[in-house]
Records
---
Amino acid sequence: MKLFQMVVCTLLCVLFFSCNSINAQNNYTNISAEELAETLSKETIQLIDVRTPQEFSQGHIETSVNIDFLSENFNKNIDVLDKTKPVYVYCKSGRRSAKSTEAFKSAGFNKIYNLYGGFLNWNGKKYKIVK
């Protein structure tokens, strides 16, 4: 039984640390909807919705700013943000925002947080949205 517990614990540790290293290579940290909600309740942050304007208008997280990742002006638009402060990004499911982190890193951001599961996860947890 102890051997089984050691094997399970080892596998969980390997899985945990391998996921973190992938994020480190991609220049961002995934955060949960709960972590984002807690952060929003404590401070004002740079929260960027990288979905299209149409998606944004259908509902978004309060205080978020829409900068469309698919827009040709994306890099120019993120360049005006405060690079000395962390930036939090999200999209519909988390994929586009994860891809956008490379542009944020290239623009000079050092602390980049990606909402894991994106807006679908946030909305699924019944957190407040604005339309």
---
Amino acid sequence: MPVVGTRWKDSFDAFAAADQQQAPQAGGVLFVGNSSIRLWSGLETQFADQPVLKRGFGSSRMLDVAAQVHQLVLPYKPRLVVVYAGDNDLAEGRSPLEVFASFTHPVEQVHAVLGAGQDVGHGDGARGGGRGRHGREPWRGSLLSGNGA
């Protein structure tokens, strides 16, 4: 298992403790990404008809999600992964295509380990305020990944 840098250690320790308390159900919907996921109040209620797991870690970038996919995604064996990250990458000056390139890496890893039938989608950065905060057109991960929208 890859070592998490000290920047995210508290978050990943909290994930491990929560998993010890109650093992997440395989085949659920996994939400990963930045603090928008972590702070999404009511997520579990909004998706009450299916098992949902939140694994958001504050100020993370798509690069960070990609680097931690073995800990963030693969152990949970989800049927669907929803990624919301990229705003912080854009704020640091990465282009939308660079963010998309970071997104494709975890998608490829998920498909290689869990099967090509696993759905992985990205939330639209416009809903997170990316356009106004970062001064550039938000990228549309759902379109770029071929998932429609």
---
Amino acid sequence: MKRWMLCMGLLLVALAPASPGLAGIPQVPQDTLAERVKACTACHGEQGRAAPDGCYPRLVGKPAGDLYQQSLNFAQGRRHFGPMAQLVDPLTPAYLRVIAEHFTGLRVPYPPPLPVPMSHVRLPRLAFSASPPSP
């Protein structure tokens, strides 16, 4: 009986962190690269797709060498944007390359284009002002 109680107690302790319903026990996130790059996707959009405001570039699918070089430029002070420089400054060049290759390897489609209202469409003036060609 004691052995059974001990086994059940150990089982409960082992399963406790995996049970989301247990109050008071903090959940430890998985240590994956996808979790680690959440600092990037906070600005660059979910999965590096680009944020809807258009202020931050799309990362996913870009050449790894380009992404690596740009992040290295921030880390070494050749590009200037405070939050980005602070984010990449403590990272090693090897880790910056790993992050660049992560975003390059993702295959996320571009979103469909937004419809353009007809009031915003500018047709070439030539279509309305030029006379028809002579025979």
---
Amino acid sequence: MTVQKAIRLLNVPPYDVRRVLLDPRALPAWNPAFHTLDGPAHATTDVAYPITVRGGLTGNWEYTAIADQRIDTAWHVPGFRETAVWLLEPHDGGTLVTHEFRHAGPLAGILRQAFRGVAELRLDRLTQRASRFEAPAFAGARNEHTIEYQGRRS
């Protein structure tokens, strides 16, 4: 089993970080390991989103838990499984993000070196993606928006 963890303070409010993490169909736009991801447009727990990953392998990706400050995901293809957590802590107008993932399966051992540093790369891409959202016209605007998702709340 391979485990990686990275922590970074993003100069992006938690609302915008959650917008990126809870937009399943946009995942291939900022995670180059995924070529395609299909399924509901809104984040939904325990729904299998069909994926095609680098190398042409197919499998499923899912949200396993969605809470205000924690989002858990998992994906698998034949011979490989990843479980991941994103912890979001508001911090001085930004977000302290902890990203940890675990890999299991025969391909995980073979690909261990290829995944070195990937937690940090994901935080880089998350920062770039979340930074694209425009600032609200007034400070209270973020409190008037909600992120829609279906499924159970953890």
